[in-house]
Structures are given as structure tokens and as C-alpha cells.
Design a protein that fits this description.
Radius of gyration: 27 Å
Distance between the termini: 89 Å
Shape: elongated
Number of helices: 9
Largest sheet: none
Structural class: mainly alpha
Number of strands: 0
Order of helices and strands: HHHHHHHHH
Strand content: under 5%
Amino acid sequence: MSATITEIVDEEPTAPRIPDADHHRDVNGGWLRPAVFGAMDGLVSNFALMTGVVGGSAGNSTVVLTGLAGLAAGACSMAAGEYTSVASQRELVEAEIEAERIELRRNPQGELAELAQVYISRGVEPELARQVAEQLTRDPERAVEVHAREELGIDPHDLPSPLVAAASSFACFALGALLPLLPYLLGATSLLPALVLAVLGLFGCGAVVARVTARSWWFSGLRQLVLGGAAAGVTYLLGSLIGGHVG
């Protein structure tokens, strides 16, 4: 009768456990940065835009129209910008990987010596470093991967996706921009409900960001609240100063 998984594990209680990278947070993926910046930018920019219009003594319908236009324009702009940025970055990385692949075909011994030198610089004995380099580069595709990791600092199998970056940026910007607009859509006639939601949203976004950084939640929350509040205050002041002259 074949042994069960539990029995196999019990028979080898001292077997060394190979560490993996699953317990680390994803810091290279293509979704986190655009999602965070999208939500922050949507909330700050649309709330500031709306406060500027309110400062200029605009009516509620104008405030709602401004908020909706800011949401749509900002979300599309963020998505387009993120797609172009990430696609350009990915294309650059792919070009560098292809250049490495060509160089490995043209000058395999030179690339082998270069990889061995990388390990030597990290404290590996020269002979052992060359043996390791030879073993790691026997397969052409594995060689490209190893050189990309060691020389370029990139993982060819973990490149950010432009579509993921664009979609996450669009969705998060729209959600952030919707927050201060929501009270007006539900019938509010003053800026106060939008202000309360914006304050909570700014602090909440900052606190959430702290979960993927080394900062404390209250510090990140207060920092975002101060920055967002400053932006809204400046646009409100400008709206108050300019609104009368434009009208």
C-alpha cells in the first residue's frame, strides 16, 4: 500500500525547508502602483476641481457636470498614460533581452566569462564561479534568463502588463473621483457632505497604502489628508478670486 503524504512528511521531520518568495509582497507587478496613484489622483484632483468650482459660486448642476467631466477625462487620461508608460517600459526591457540573446549567440565565451565575473564579484571562488556559470547557461533560453537577471536586474517572465496597468488605473481613478461627487449625485446642495467623504477617503487611502510600505497607517493617512486638503484649499481660493471676474 502506497504511503500517504502525511506519512511521508512524518518520516522526514528534519528535512530542510526550501524558502520561497511567496511570502514577499509583489513589488514589481503592473497593477499596484497605477491602482494606488489612480485612486489618490482621482480623489484629490476631482475634489479639488469641484471645490474650485464651488469657490467660484457655481450652481449645483455645474458642480455635478464638472465632477462628471473630471471623472471621465481623468480616468481616460490616467489609463492612456499608464498604458503608454508601461508598454514603453516593457518594450525597452524586451529589446534589452533580445540584445542579450543575440550577444549570447555571437559571443558565448565572452558572455560566459562576464557572468562568471558577476559571481566572482560577489565572493565566489573563480573556478567555482565559472562552473556555476557554465551549468546555468547550458540551455540557450535559460542562459538568456540568467543574464537578464544578473546583468539587467529583470525577470523576463515577470514583466508588467500595459493592459493591467491601464485597467487598474482607470477603475481606481474613477472610484476615487466618484467619492466627493457622490453626495451631489444623491441630492446634496452644499460642499460639506463631499468634504466629509473626501477627508475620510484621503485618510483611508493613505492608511491603506501603509499596508504595502514601511510607514505607519496614521502617518500615511495624515500625510495624504494634508496633501489633498492643501490642493483643495488652493483651488477653492483660486475659484473664489477668479469666479467673480469670470461671471
